Amino acid sequence: EEVSDGLKASTFASDKTTIGILNEAFGHKRMSEITRRDIQLFVNDYAKTHAASTSRRLASRLYAILRWAEEDGVLEAVPPIVRVPKVSKKRQKFYTLAEMRTLIRSSTGTTKVLLMLLSETGCRIGEAMALQGKHVDVAAGVLRIEQNVFGTVVDVPKTNSSVRNISITPTLAQALASVRSTPTAFVFRRDNEPLTA
Known about the structure:
A hairpin with a 4-residue loop joins strand 1 and strand 2 (142-145). The relative contact order is 0.11. By secondary structure, this protein is mainly alpha-helical. The longest helix has 20 residues, at 52-71. It has 7 helices and 5 strands; from the N terminus they run H-H-H-H-H-H-E-E-E-E-E-H. It has a 3-stranded antiparallel beta sheet with strand order 1-2-5, covered by helices on one side. The protein has a two-stranded antiparallel ribbon with strand order 3-4. The protein is elongated and about 65 Å long. The protein has helices at 9-26, 36-49, 52-71, 97-105, 109-121, 125-129, 170-179, and strands at residues 136-137, 142-145, 148-150, 153-155, 164-167.
């Protein structure tokens, strides 16, 4: 928690899950008892039922913890690095233009506008859900992405380059104008999910 303090909400949640998995696997041992073989067996077993990228992330986080322990004098030396599974690049599934048109035509209200937005701009769902009325310039046909939402927490986007202006069509601008209320109101907010900064 000390190390994760100040991180984005999504990173903190991911770290918490990772620490839980590592604690379950190694929490019964003292850090000085964790061997390279223990880590290798853990990575191998985990990779059998989970994505290679997740196994790599867990190994990376474990080594970071062990290095911090070494720096703090809790551990004499970090075990040698283990072999981690290679991440295979799978072709991502996507909706065709015809499929997106069908989805949009069969939707109504804010759902329809959200699908139009995601389809036209390619923005992340968290970015879309964090949009406020002030981020939509209908006259100029510009959408400003400057925040993201994770769960119910509004934060800055994933990276600095994610803060950007996107040109949008008059059709999308008008659709967004039809569902926004005030400059500070969230365009796609649901009443039972209040957002906090």
